[in-house]
Structures are given as C-alpha cells and as structure tokens.
Amino acid sequence: MADEQYDFDVLVIGAGPGGYVAAIRAAQLGLKTACAESRETLGGTCLNVGCIPSKAMLHASEYYDQAANGSFAKLGIKVTPELDLETMHGQRRDAVKQLTGGIEFLFKKNKVEWLKGRAAFTGKDTVEVAGKTYRAKNIVIATGSSVTPLPGVEVDNAKGVIVDSTGALELAKVPEHLVVIGGGVIGLELGSVWRRLGAKVTCVEFLDQILPGFDGEVRKEANKIFKKQGFEFKLSTKVTGATVKDGKATLTVEPAKGGAAETIEADAVLVSIGRRPNTDGLNLEAAGLKTNQRGQIETDHDFRTSVPGIWAIGDVIPGPMLAHKAEDEGIAVAENIAGQTGIVNHDVIPSVVYTWPEIAGVGLTEEQAKEKGEVRTGKFPMLANSRAKTNHEPDGFVKVIADAKTDRVLGVWCIASVAGTMIAQTAQAMEFGATSEDIAYTCHAHPTHSEAIKEAAMAVTGKPIHI
C-alpha cells in the first residue's frame, strides 16, 4: 500500500512497451501503481502505429508477393492473386485492436490505474494529468520517442503524399513510385511492404550504405538482396527539399559530399531518418531534471535519474530504441523500485529487420570486435542449409564472431528467412558467456534453419561440415 502522503507507490508516464510492462510488474510486486497515457489505447507507438501494425502488413504483403511473383508456382501452387488493400488494412487494424485491448485487460487484472491524459511534472514527486495533480513515491518516465523531422521536407499524413511511418501504414492505394528517405530498419520494412504490393521503391540514404549500426558484411549483402528484389538505392545522397503539387511530390537531392542537385518525382514519400526522445511537454524543469545533448534523460545502471525517486527507461534514455529493450528495462526498474535487483545486459540486445529475408544481429559487429582485439569469425551460407534449400530460401548467411584467445562469442549476425527467431538462441548463449565451441557442440534439430548457426560456430575453428 502507498504511504498516506502519496497517491501511488509508482506512477509510470507512458504506456508503451516499457511503460506498461513497468506498471504491470510494479503492481505484481505489491506496489500501488498508476500509468498515465494520453492515447485512446494503450501500447504506445509499438502496438498502435509501429512494430505490430507494420508486421501485420509485412506478413500479408509477403504472401501477396509470393503468389504474384512466382514463389508459390515453384511449389506447384498456381494462383492469380487480386489485391484487396482495404481488407489488408482491416486485418492490421484488428491485430492492433486485440493487442491494445489485451493490455487494458492486464491493467485491470493487475489493478493498475490508467490515468487518461498527458502527464507533466509539477514537482519532484508530483505530476498533473488532465487537470488533476497526483503525488507518487516513485515516478518512471517511459515516454518513448517520435519521428525525427527532416528540414525542408514537411510531413503531412492527412494528405498521404509526404508521410512518416504512421502515414505509410495508412496509404489508401499502392503508390506507383514511393521514395523512402532513410535506409534504416523502418524505411526498409515499409518500403518492402509497398514494393511487394506493386510500387517502385527508391531509397535515398545519406550514408554510403544501408542499415547503419549493423555488421558491415551484412549491410553489403542486404543491399545486394534488396536490389535483386527491385529496390533502387541512392546512397551517399541527401534530400535538401520537397514540394507537393497535384498529389505528387518532387524531391531535391544532391550528393552528400557536395555536387550537382537533381530532382525525383514520387507519388508518396516516406520520411524515416530516425527517432528522437519524447521529453517535450513533460516540464522536466519542475522536477529538477535536464536532458543531454541528444535530448535524452541520463540514468545510472539501475535506471535512476539524477533526482531521487524519478526513474527513466526505454527510448527516452541512451541506447538502442527497441521495444524489447524497453520491456526488459520496464521489468528491471519495477524490481529495483521494489528493492529487488533488476538488471539489463545492454551488451546482449538483439536487433531485427523484418524484411524478406529477415536480418538480425546481437552483440558486436566484426568491425567493433576487431577494435577491441583479435577475433576469429565463422560463416555459413543459407544456400547450404537443408531447410532453407527445400524452402527455396537461398539468400543470406550466419556469421559468428568470437574472441581469438578465449573463444567467447562476441557477436552473431545473420540474414535468413527466420533470422529474427534464430537470433534468440545466440543471444541466450551470449548471456551465459558461451564460446563458439559451446554452440558448435550443442545438438541442433535437423532439418532446421538454426543448423546454420551451429555450422557457423563450427567454422570459427575451421571445421564446418556442409561447406
């Protein structure tokens, strides 16, 4: 029970993957808990307009593409598909409705009070929500992130021409030409959706390669695969302006290092150059908090901020902006508040791109690992994997990076149809300090895609079987 001087033991600001998990875990630990959320539904960006709806569209468009472009025919299934875009949108919305409703049910089940409205600090232990002030012994900031704007390119989702990721999920028709600004995860995933449904897709990336932060070899191979699928890439290119006329956009682009400008016309433009922490409107000054140069709230290892009793997790603090990172931090911060020991190993957080094939990695890239010392690597192509072969999924590989002296696994990167699922095995192995030999001598079921991980681990010491 909360002290009489407090309304709650824990008040969480934001009901995204980090916030709602923190609230539920705190309530499970016997703390009187509330969660402030201004959306009409719980789940934050991820469930409402991010991870979940994009995967619904990726899944549906993948089937359409396989039916329309020959993959089914290779299996002896002859079909002539017809796109019903509104129904495809409908199944996406239904998935969102079910999952956000499920969180509301869990709030009720665990007696988490939903404070409906936008929260702002009025003091170090008080916030105002919808005109009412609440006092809490512990306040957790879990406000997530929002799309980073691009100067000279104004997003207007209502018009459906220049859109962000939210607008790209709601396009009422398949654009003839979609330009994606940004070659990161979001741009490639949503670009894949509309490419599969019939759009020409051009991706403009400021850097010299797509997927910043991923292993260099993976980035190059992914580029080849996407090109083979029909993506057009303009790398080392920056967008300097955009105009909209008669339902079409004209972009002005030029080489990143300087040079002659050119224009690109498009039916739709997706701006996906990254995300920024949501701290505006929180009135952090009233709580005595400041943000760093990147607009993030700094915390210690336990997720405490510089103000006692105020904690922060998820996209609003330093680290990768990933839903599963926020979830783990939500559990950890609740346990720390309750006097337990909540820990997140930030060195072992997997990243996944849910394209076809999927792209996943955990730990250090080969480039990062070599900066720290001598390494050994092992690779195995999916082309030599029996399950991938029978499924007609030849693209990609698995790469295991290990310390040359200790053999401890430092990173694993893979491109495969189910890479997002495969990466969990290696993350768990790394959490327990596994060596490549540990993975190599763990029996893997046959025939499975995951055997490629075993073979790549065997390749670290030069003894793969099937290549």
C-alpha Rg, in Å?
23 Å
Contiguous helical run count: 15
How many E-type strands?
Answer: 22
Share of residues in helices: 25-40%
Classify the secondary structure makeup into a structural class: alpha/beta
In terms of per-residue confidence, which ranges show pLDDT below 50 for 5 or more consecutive residues? none
What is the overall pLDDT average? 97
The main β sheet shows up as: 7 strands, mixed
The geometry reads as globular
Tell me about this structure.
The protein is of the alpha/beta class and about 475 residues long. The chain is about 35% helix and about 25% strand. Strands 1, 2, 3, 4, 5, 6 and 17 form a seven-stranded mixed beta sheet that branches. It is globular and about 70 Å long. It starts with 7 loop residues before the first strand and ends in a 7-residue tail after the last helix.
Short description:
With about 475 residues, this protein is an alpha/beta fold. The protein has helices spanning about 15-30, 45-50, 50-70, 70-75, 85-110, 165-170, 185-195, 215-230, 285, 325-335, 365-370, 385-390, 420-430, 435-440, 450-460, and strands at about 10-15, 35, 115, 120, 125-130, 130-140, 145, 160-165, 175-180, 200-205, 230-235, 235-245, 250-255, 260-265, 270, 275, 310, 350-355, 360-365, 375-380, 395-405, 410-415.
